[in-house]
Model the fold of this input.
Amino acid sequence: MKSLYQKSLVASFLVAAGCLAQAQEPPEPEPAVSSEEPARRVGDPWEAYEAGSYNEALQGFVDVQVERPNDAELLMNIGSTQYQMKNYEEAEATFTSAALKGDDATRAQALYNLGNTAYRQGKLDEAVKRYQAALEVNPDDEDTKFNLEFVRNEIRRRHEEAQKRQDEQQQDQQDQQDQQDQQGQQDQQDQQGQDQPQDRDGDGLSDSVEQNGENPTDPDNPDSDGDGLSDGEEDTNQDGGMDEGETDPNNPDTDGDGLSDGEEEEQEQGQQGAGEEQEEEMSDEEAERYLQALQEGRPEKPQEGKARPMSGGKDW
Done:
């Protein structure tokens, strides 16, 4: 048979495979091409392969294989045809068989083609291993070196893209969580604002107490009676009623003594302040005399002096 042409066919495939490896994205494995090919018949499988009639070429190579079942170069041609038909799994099995049965040169070519086949199936890590194995057999093959570096870069690029997508997804989730937390805080603040009693005039009494209490006051006027004291200061327990000890927020002079409640409050505070000032100015001696004056029924006893004989000299 045309062994020289077989080698030429294998070399042609290797160059084609090297070019195909420069694609940016490996296509997904596709089913074998159907038998929709030109009706022409090419008797020589090598010529059929060159003409692109891969079904006819494959059939021709298989027929030749009956006579030469252990021919590694023939297996390479069958695998090349299967590869062109995108039957990558079948091509992988055929190239593996060729690598086991061929010499070192054929083995290196088969491993190289196995790397291309793995790449086409999206098995990038496996492709790297196949190219490395091919370089162990033939360290000087430039096509294998190129494809090995290309696939490594592709793996790195995909890892970076995957990490970028993961980071973006995590950032999106974090942004959504932050928005939910902010919305929750805003809702809580709004609810607290709604629950807190409203005090339009800021007098310390809620509007509802001023409007609905037993002694209602003006919710828009902090000092309903104009006595100088806010309604909240007069209704100290903030119950909306007039209780003992409180002044009337609707009456500027609760006790009718001619002084407004505000003036009386100022006087009391002034007297209290004067008393405190007086206490602060009292000396220690004054405080002691003041305390002694408060002690009733305890007359002060004068201390009796003790007679002491005057020294008149020696008593002989």
Q: What stands out?
A: Residues 201-259 form one domain. The CA atoms of residues 129 and 183 lie 53 Å apart. The chain has a mean pLDDT of 78.
